[in-house]
Fold this protein.
Amino acid sequence: MLNVEEKNLFEDSVQFPDFDAKFRLDQLIGLDDYKSRLTKMLSVLIYPGSMESWVNKFHGDHFDALSNILNRPPLIVLAGDVGSGKTALAENISDSVARLNNIDVILLPLSLSSRGQGRVGEMTQLVSNAFRETKELAKKYKSESGKSNGAVVLLIDEADALAQSRESSQMHHEDRAGVNAFIRGIDSLASEGLPAAVIMCTNRLDALDPAVKRRAAEILLFKRPDLSQRKSVLEQSLAPFDLGHETVNKIAEMTGASATRNYGFSFSDITQRLVPAIVLDAYPNKAVTKERALHIASLIQPTPPFLGAVDE
Ligand SMILES: Nc1ncnc2c1ncn2[C@@H]1O[C@H](COP(=O)(O)OP(=O)(O)O)[C@@H](O)[C@H]1O
Ligand SMILES: [Mg+2]
């Protein structure tokens, strides 16, 4: 039998509402529509009763008409370019779900990036264990009479390896078993009607397994920021340095697509590379200046998009 450290499966489960999560959610730019859709979808998947009150209030006794919405498998896929806010949104959106429904939500985060690539079968066991724990926890929250006392969100991040198409010829037999374990997990969450949902993040929508895609209640696509979103994220992260609108606007222009490349900076290129470079250039003996900030911006190049998938 394989020996996956079960105790360490979810090292950092998080409970919501959580003030820091709310703050981090508010920091995310250009994702308001996704925040609201994700909150609603998760609320309905986790707690169908919330829809019953809504339909009663606005449309009378027509709860049965909602079966198409309520019977969807509890899976939402966040897909798109690296550094576009998938993980940040997935890790913090439960705060909004907890507040909207006035319940506790537990997030169980499982990153597959560095895991499950070792011994044969490890991925399969990780996934099976993750679903088992999710279900055990969700059972405690389930209430026989209506509203559950809480809910569980299982986050499967960096799921590229798992999401990969079963039709892909390079796919190893064991990987296929991992995908199958995932599908079994989703299906059993759905059939047992537990207050739990799964968020899967992947950088490779093109490789997403068709059976996983079919089950997803929704697939949200993430992109690099456009000009106005770059302005917002720059204004936010450069605010302490008082560089003025003109400089910030210039940097926003410089970080877009250009004559030499058909893609601009990702959100994380801006927050995790450009802004730190500007700060460290001045630190520890000088202040950040407009001239230096513009100069640094002219030197830094954006990370090439995954698989060249861009639309800007
Ligand atoms: N929409 C956004 N608004 C503001 N900052 C963002 C946004 N998306 C990403 N970032 C920044 O980039 C960092 C990395 O994003 P992350 O969620 O890990 O990207 P992904 O999971 O899509 O690769 C975040 O911690 C945040 O600092
Ligand atoms: Mg991520």
